[in-house]
Structure formats: C-alpha cells, structure tokens
C-alpha cells in the first residue's frame, strides 16, 4: 500500500483499514466514486486515489416505504433502472455531470451525486440531493467508521451529518453506503413553450408561472442558440429564444393545470405551444444534463436570485452567447466566448455565486473554482474540516486552497 497509486476497498471494513493506514502513514487520499467528476474542482495533489467503485450494489429497497440503500459506488444508471421497474425515480433529478467534463455518459455513482449535492430542474419543487439523503455509513479522516441517519423518512437522527457530507465533494469522509428517499414517477409530463419579444420578457414569464397554483416542476429559458441544439423538433425549429415550463402528474391533472397556466400567461406578443409527454421528457433531460451547450470550453454555473435574472440578461448574452437559464432564471449555465475569462471579475458587483464547472487544469489551479467564502464562513469551514479530517488527508484542496 505504500507504493502509490490506486486503492480499491471492497467493503466498509476494508475501507476503514485503508483510511486508518493512510492516517497512520500521513498519506493523502483523493476520493473517487467512478471518476466521472475528477476533472472538476481544484486540482488535487494526493498520494493515492481511493477508488470506491467496488462498494456497489443495491442492498435495500422498500418501494412501499419509498426508501433505498446502496453502496456509494453503485452506478446511478443501475439505481435508476431498478426504480423504473417499480415506477419510481429520484425526485431531485440529478444531471449527468460526468459528461460535462468530456467523460462517458452514465458513469457517475450515487455516492458522487450525493457528495456533490447534485440536482436538476426539479430542484425548485423537490429540493437537492441533501434533502433526500436519509442515512450514511462512512469513514472519516480519523480512520474510523461512523453511521448517521436512518432508513425511514421520520427518523431525523443524524440528519445534520448527512447534510454536511452532501456537497462536501469528498473532503470530509469516504462514503461507503447511502440511504435515500425515492418517489413515484409522474404518470405524464407536458411542457408549455413560450415565445416572446425578448429574453427578459421570457424570464418574467417563468417567474409569473411560478407564482400560479399550477405546481410547476421545471422553468427554463433557452436562448436561440441553445434551443437550436435540441433533439426536439419544435424546440430546435423555433429559431428564437423559448421559455419552457413543465407540469407533471396524473394525466387529467396535467391537462387541467396546463389550461389554467395558458390562461394565466396569455399576453399580447406572447405565443404558446405544447410538448406532450415524450418530447417533454426529452427536452428536460437535455436541460438537466446541460446538453444544449457546447461540450468544450470553460463552463460556469451562476446561482442568482430569479428576480435578478432579467436585469442580467443582456450582460450575460454579451459575455456568453452559449448559455441557458434554469430554476426560473436562478441558475445560469455559461460558456463564455473567451474561455480564459474569469467570470467572477466580469460579473463583479452583480451578486450571485459562481462555480467553475469545467476548465483546463491550469485555469482550475489559478481561479477559485467555488465562490470564495467570507472570513467567518471560511473559519467555520476549516473547523468542520478539522473535526472530520484533522490531518487534512481526504481530497485536500478540492474545494478551497488550504482546506
């Protein structure tokens, strides 16, 4: 184990032994599920890669209780296939971020999804991965296995630990097994397409849709260049920017709410079209996976108040013609024409948080990948890191330099 390279435990006991050895020898470890996101975050200089892919397989699934447990290295595609057989799904709709960095589609693991706290277009309604994360078995940087949370929704013991681990990008503990909520898959889906005079007006239409009682589960604005990349003919052939508003549920309910939504959003200069179930699902998979933007070049993710999205529309269009707005305008994916541009500098003073999702190694080393933290929050982050990983051996520096 002291020759460098990759370590690959096949059980929680082996994982505990490997981490304990690394702690005793003061060897740093880069945690990896199936490697789909290793090209994201700050560059990690570690002595070994701790490959968790052998910790795989669904070991508990109770469809009636809407709960599942699986090894952290279980492919997400395998979990989704098991759920589909029972008409269920992950309500937080995680996108395939592995393909964003040029990797193979379908490679990511459930542990990686939770560790990065991923969520797709349905986050506005269903929350992110951490909101569905019920329990965990893991090994901390003390070299000790711990268990937190439970296997039913009503058990709140350990929720704080689960929420700390979700979004920690492998810097606090090595996940062995995770337990999470699942939900019934909607019987049908429909998408209302809005055409209007300008992008700011379309973003206003998305916000107006969210204020209705129609239970919108997706609200995105596609500039013309993004829409043209869609495999859905009505979207690609529109030749202009589109607002996309999704409704899901029972067939009769969707039809009723769709009619109500059309009446609520009717306005001079706005026209509408409807995508039925199959093309609707295709479009939202494209939005979820950011498949409507180029697969090369720097990719930034901007989180901003939806009310600010319209104000920023022209500036963002000038900086990054290749972009799309999700979460009612509150999430913007940007591929700037100048791939070396620091979007934080370009958008200084406009609020929001920026994450550099894809970029060459040198750029990820030179630009803060995650939004820099104010001093008080950074001090808290350092204390949390030291409480889980006192020697700083787990995925060092992945999120913030020196942590």
UniProtKB/TrEMBL annotation:
Q: Which residues form the signal peptide?
A: none
Q: Which Gene Ontology MF annotations are present?
A: catalytic activity; FAD binding
Q: Which Pfam families match?
A: FAD_binding_4
Q: Can you give the residue ranges of the FAD-binding PCMH-type domain? A: 1-185
Q: Which domain of life is it from?
A: Bacteria
- Show the InterPro entries listed in the entry: FAD-bd_PCMH, FAD-bd_PCMH-like_sf, FAD-bd_PCMH_sub2, FAD-linked_Oxase-like_C, Oxid_FAD_bind_N
Q: What keywords would UniProt list here? A: FAD, Flavoprotein
- Stated name of the protein: FAD-binding protein
* Species name: Marinimicrococcus flavescens
């Amino acid at each position: 184990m002291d020759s460098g390279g990759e370590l690959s435990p096949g059980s929680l006991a082996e994982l505990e032994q490997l981490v304990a050895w690394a702690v005793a020898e003061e060897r740093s470890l880069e945690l990896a599920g199936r490697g789909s996101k290793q090209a994201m975050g700050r560059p990690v200089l570690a002595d070994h890669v701790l490959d968790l892919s052998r910790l795989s397989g669904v070991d508990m699934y109770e469809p009636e209780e809407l709960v599942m447990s699986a090894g952290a290295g279980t492919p997400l595609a395998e979990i989704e296939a098991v759920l589909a057989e029972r008409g269920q799904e992950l309500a937080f709709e995680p996108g395939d971020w592995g393909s964003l960095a040029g990797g193979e589609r379908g490679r990511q693991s459930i542990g990686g999804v939770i560790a990065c706290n991923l969520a797709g277009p349905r986050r506005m309604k269903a929350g992110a991965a951490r909101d569905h994360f019920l329990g965990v078995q893991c090994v901390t940087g003390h070299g000790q296995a711990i268990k937190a949370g439970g296997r039913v929704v009503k058990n709140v013991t350990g929720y704080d630990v689960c929420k700390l681990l979700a979004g920690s990008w492998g810097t606090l503990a090595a996940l062995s097994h995770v337990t999470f909520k699942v939900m019934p898959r909607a019987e049908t889906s429909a998408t209302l397409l809005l055409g209007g005079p300008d992008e700011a007006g379309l973003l206003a239409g998305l916000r107006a849709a969210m204020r209705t009682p129609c239970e919108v589960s997706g609200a995105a604005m596609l500039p013309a260049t993004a829409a043209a990349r869609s495999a859905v003919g009505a979207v690609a052939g529109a030749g202009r920017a589109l607002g996309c508003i999704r409704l899901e549920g029972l067939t009769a309910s969707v039809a009723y709410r769709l009619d109500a939504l059309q009446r609520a959003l009717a306005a001079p200069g706005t026209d509408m079209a409807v995508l039925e179930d199959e093309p609707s699902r295709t479009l939202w998979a494209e939005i979820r996976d950011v498949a409507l933007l180029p697969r090369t070049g720097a990719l930034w993710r901007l989180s901003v108040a939806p009310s600010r999205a319209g104000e920023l529309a022209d500036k963002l269009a000038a900086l990054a013609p290749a972009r799309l707005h999700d979460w009612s305008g509150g999430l913007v994916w940007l591929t700037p024409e100048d791939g070396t541009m620091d979007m934080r500098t370009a958008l200084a003073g406009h609020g929001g948080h920026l994450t550099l999702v894809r970029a060459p190694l040198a750029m990820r080393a030179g630009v803060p990948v995650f939004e820099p933290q104010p001093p008080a929050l950074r001090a808290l982050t350092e204390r949390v890191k030291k409480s889980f990983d006192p020697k700083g051996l787990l995925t060092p520096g992945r999120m913030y330099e020196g942590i």
